[in-house]
Amino acid sequence: EVQLVQSGAEVKKPGESLKISCKGSGYSFTSYWIGWVRQMPGKGLEWMGIIYPGDSDTRYSPSFQGQVTISADKSISTAYLQWSSLKASDTAMYYCVRQVPGDASFDYWGQGTLVTVSS
Amino acid sequence: QSALTQPASVSGSPGQSITISCTGTSSDVGGYNYVSWYQQHPGKAPKLMIYEVSNRPSGVSNRFSGSKSGNTASLTISGLQAEDEADYYCSSYTSSSIPYVFGTGTKVTVL
Question: Do A104 and B92 touch (CB under 8 A)?
């Protein structure tokens, strides 16, 4: 069974750093792109970026380039999303997603990680 | 790259059919057959309902169907049921630098 299991909710202060994770199982982790999607409270979905764990090729939405870092450790089938200095505006639910090969759709979603940034 | 445009809300009675539109440009919806649709119930992760404009993943009810004409894609839900009440988002590949974009989202209400 394909699963993407994300790390738990986080509460942080502005300026702190954070790294959240997404562990894939039930499929060949290195053969599928893994993306990250942001959903701010009460708002829609925003595509942040994507990584191919096989060779760590990474693409970012211009809106998130320089604001976050996407990485992956294929030895433990885990992708990461990290911030070096959080802002209150980073408060959101973050989903990792698996991209369908040869398509632009996302067939499996993690359960989401809620990040709350508040002083 | 702006989000694809969807109506904020669509409603229908049980058993009826409703259609949700998703309007983009020739750089995204109109230029590629890579439109997908997602259903999101409150407090849950989105679920893939349609991929490549009109294909249903295994397990998705055949009451859901997708189509495209020019720069506008559509999701039709036939035989509307209470469980279909949710938010729906379209998504498309885009030739811009992103390269994926979501729609603004549509809240479906079953009256």
Answer: yes
User: Model confidence over A39-77: pLDDT tens digits?
Assistant: 999 999 999 999 999 999 999 999 999 999 999 999 999
Nearest to A105 among B48, B98, B101 (CB): B48
User: Is B31 an 8 Å CB contact of chain A?
Assistant: no
Tell me if chain A has a CB within 8 Å of the CB of B92.
Answer: yes
Give the strand pairing for A69-73 and A78-83.
antiparallel
What letter represents residue A79's amino acid?
Answer: A
Q: What is the DSSP letter of B3?
A: P
The tokens describing A6, both together, are 């994300």
* Positive/negative CA dihedral, B28, A92, A26, A71: positive
What pLDDT sits at residue A100? Answer: 84
